[in-house]
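Q: Hi! Curious about what LacI family transcriptional regulator looks like structurally. Here's the sequence.
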Amino acid sequence: MPTIKDVARRAGVSIKTVSRVVNKDPAVRDSTREHVERVVAELGYTPDPAARSMRSNRTGVLGLVTDMVTTTPYSVDIISGVQDACAEAGMMMLIVNTRGDRAHTEHAIRTLVERKVEGIVYATMYLRALDELPAMGDLPMVLVNCFMADGSVPSIVPDDYAGSYAATSHVIELGHRDIALLSVNPVIIAGERRGRGFRRALLDHGLTCTPDRVRAGQVFENGREVFVAAEATLRFLDAAQRPTAIVCGTDAIAMRAYNAVRERGLRIPDDISIVGYDNFVMIAEALDPPLTSVALPYYDMGRTAVSWLRRLGHGDGLAEPTLLMPCPLIRRASCRPL
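A: Let's find out. The predicted structure is below.
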């Protein structure tokens, strides 16, 4: 097996120069780098990762700690984004799923620090604020789909306010003026932000949000999620004047609204338009007609987290400690113009 000395001898340069090229030192001249890289390829030289780690204090490994992201289809794209970005950077990812257990989370983070990962992505299934995190010294961390209330740790979260604003504006621009909201549980952060986006869009377009046009499509009872969207939709439909469009807090809520609309013998979008949120394709694309929905940018959030960690690891700063990632509207066939 060729060694670094063999490469240096064949290339006619010092061992130090070969090491600088292999470790992608930007100060190496382009002509020298290209020459050494050709020799490396000709000899089939592969650097010893353990030796490189000892010399550079870099292991080429990032840690990903999650609560339940690995076990839910809704946010698993965060993992795909982190993994793809790591692969493109020639790095590996170690992942720990803690099921939201505080002690397990603290142990996982301490263990990853001891294993000398270069940084940690901490991701949650639901958008939420964190109270505290284990001490990590100088090791960089980026939060995904969560944040510290004091902004002390860089975080990347979906812009749910703007996403809901865009969904509501979409049906308004189609000519709808009587629009209802089936909200996700408003006590969670995403629900509150999506509700504000809905109301602001109505206000900015000169429309009024009346209490009878806002109902919960999902609530928490005894610590678990309970969907009440079908019943709430029926109340909208049975009113003396039914709305012409319903904005739903999630695609799962929208799916139940579809069932209620059909129960009353009505058609989507002929009789009523519906917009979802999440762009959970297993629902949105399977519904008939396919559901217009706001996409959560989980994949891009994961990729961006890796980019941020690498910048922090090289001592570079970040323009903003918190990034609100845009949530694009995916137009399908569940809305029609009036």
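A: A fun detail: Confidence is low (pLDDT under 50) at residues 50-56.
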